[in-house]
Amino acid sequence: MAVIAVVGANWGDEGKGKMVDYLAENSHFVVRFQGGSNAGHTVINDYGKFALHLLPSGVFYPGVVNVIGPGVALDIRAFAEELDSLVQRSVPMPKIAVSDRAQVLMPYHKMFDEYEEERLGARQFGSTKSGIAPFYSDKYAKIGLQVSELYDKDLLRARVAHALEIKNVLLEHLYHKPALKVDDLVEELSVQAEIIKPYVTDTTRLFADALKAGKSILLEGQLGSLRDPDHGIYPYSTSSSTIAGYAAIGAGLPPYAITEVLAVTKAYSSCVGAGPFVTELTGEEGEELRRRGGDAGEYGAKTGRPRRVGWFDAVATRYGCAVQGATALAVTNLDVLGYLENIPVCVAYEIDGRITSDFPATALVRKAKPVFKTMPGWKSDISSARSLGDLPQEARDYIEMVERETGVKVKWVSVGPRREQTFRT
Ligand code: GDP
Q: Ligand 1 centroid vs 372 CA: distance in angstroms?
């Protein structure tokens, strides 16, 4: 039995989707435990290239049960569209279970996300406008709606009416938009209830049985450590926890059930969205790295926005691994660095004239300047390597550097976006 949390050590887009798709072959369950359809997990396999937003990346294996856990922001329309698009592209209908405790992303959550970014103008946070921040605000303000509540007509109407009392004040008076009607929303949610019905189940119970039977579970994180609301670069964070510690909660498993925390990091840094990014490269150097990472989709899978890129940030990654409690690392996109004579790596920050190797809280990250050391490059194409022994010495040294700097053993190396371009060290 293995319960592995596959989580991001950085800002997201580390290649978690690829790693989950690879590892899912030997798993019984793949679970999304947080976030919603704002994810963009790229998977390239025999069926083609896919950007999964809400569905777990185990959907390409007919034997895997793909679970939407209680911690997820469930956008039912997005779920249905994504499922349809897979089937239309000849992927066999996957097995799916949706927690009856998951909460429903309401149509107005997306509206509020959009209106708020509009209101903020230049101060906006770069939301994907998938309704995530309004969803989690409502969940913790206890005006959210659980999936199970969709199937009790009176309860549904009462919950919607209760929420709209607040929502309509904001719509009309803060955003100057038309109010919403209880009847319209109840009707839409009743349609959505039918769409999701075949998949709804008590997934907490399902996992209790699975653990007893020694089944293997992959917990698929979205975004990474530095986007966590508690540990990340708040307020440039997401609205649900991206940390492996939360995986147990958001999936509905005991914390001690997790046997491995596999943190995923790119061999360089990339980030979509706003916030301090210490090793960011601008100008020609940045353009080149983004272009070289072209196959690595250096344009956000969800947003199409160009990703910000920079050299490997050992300070941020060490911290990212520590808050994840990483027991193993996967280093992806190593192939992308093959064009460089020398590779700068950020090993410390200079903040107000002081050198530190600790990743500080956001107010200080804003002031940090990178301190680089340089590693020799390998100047070759390593995308067909299938073992450590196939790599040039310089690339092996680079992996050792990642291990030394983070204090975590590199277990997997990825040298291309395809499933088979992955090997164990
Ligand atoms: P996720 O959100 O963590 O799943 O990551 P994304 O899918 O948003 O971004 C990772 C990008 O890198 C995707 O375009 C992947 O196809 C690509 N990718 C993953 N691993 C590798 C790799 O080892 N080499 C290259 N060149 N691309 C990779």
A: 25
Answer yes or no: are the C-beta atoms of 264 and 15 closer than 8 Å: yes
Residues of the chain with CATH 3.90.170.10: 265-424
Query: Which homologous superfamily is 3-102+199-261 in?
Result: Adenylosuccinate Synthetase, subunit A, domain 1 (3.40.440.10)
- Percentage of the chain modeled with pLDDT above 90: 87
Report which protein residue has its CA nearest ligand 1's atom 6.
13
How far, in Å, from the CA of 280 to the mean position of ligand 1? 19
Q: Is the CB of 406 under 6 A from ligand 1?
A: no
Pocket lining: 94 vs ligand 1, CB cutoff 6 Å? no
Q: Of the candidates 285, 289, 347, 281, which has an alpha carbon nearest to the alpha carbon of residue 317?
A: 347
192 pLDDT exceeds 90? yes
Q: What is the reported pLDDT for 140?
A: 96
Q: pTM higher than 0.85 for the full model?
A: yes
81 SS3 class: helix
Q: Where in the chain is the domain with CATH 1.10.300.10?
A: 103-196
The predicted-structure confidence for 379-418, as pLDDT tens digits, reads as follows 999 999 999 999 999 999 999 999 999 999 999 999 999 9
Which ligand 1 atom is nearest residue 51's CA?
7
Q: Where in the chain is the domain with CATH 3.40.440.10?
A: 3-102+199-261
Q: What percent of the chain has pLDDT over 70?
A: 97
Per CATH, the number for 103-196 is 1.10.300.10
**Long-range CB contacts (< 8 A, 24+ apart) of 119-124?**
119/174, 119/175, 124/274
State the sign of the Cα–Cα–Cα–Cα dihedral 406, 407, 408, 410: positive
223 lines ligand 1 (CB under 6 A): no
Q: Indicate which residues carry an active-site annotation.
A: 13, 41
Place of tokens 């490269």: 281
CATH architecture, domain defined by 265-424: Alpha-Beta Complex (3.90)
Closest residue by Cα to atom 12, ligand 1, is 296
Q: Most distant CA pair in the chain: distance in Å?
A: 67
Please tell me the distance between residue 33's alpha carbon and the centre of ligand 1 in angstroms: 20
| Region 223-244 average pLDDT | 96
